[in-house]
Amino acid sequence: MAWRAADALGVDSIWVWDHFFPLSGDPAGAHFEGWSLLAAMAVETKRAMIGVMVSCNTYRNPDLLADMARTVDHLSGGRTYLGIGAGWFERDYAEYSYAFGTPGSRIRLLEDGLARIADRLSRLTPPPAGRLPIMIGASGPKIGLRLVATYGHAWNTFGSPEEFAAGNGLLNDWCDSVGR
Questions:
Q1: pTM of this prediction exceeds 0.85
Q2: Helix 62-75 with 103-123: angle, nearest 10 deg
């Protein structure tokens, strides 16, 4: 598998995504579920951090997702990221009968989910094997970046260098505001 070769090359991290269908190319192309793949990667790699960039908060119960991430973290010997975001790919929602809602409702559910994940991780026995950093995919200046500042250890975003610089400045402001 590609993850074994990448790990042998010494890469720092290896990522899968949390979509149920290809985002480009053949819409009916071959595809696998991300967290199941991550469990396989955990036992077949030795060095690289691994993660899902990023899990959709509304595809799985947040308490269950915390437990899944903790379990994969143990399988990997403490090398797992818990990547999470609000979700955006409507086909995933429609095909699996999840309520798509609105961008606002999805970010509010992410906020609730992050609080639940933090609480669940604090109560799991055994706890995660490693740091289990949380990577949050978000870019909204009022809520999304506040959530990154409050709960995140890493940030996933996209855009031009100028858009990144502006978002990073806002994230720094939120970090100052929440005391991080």
A1: yes
A2: 50
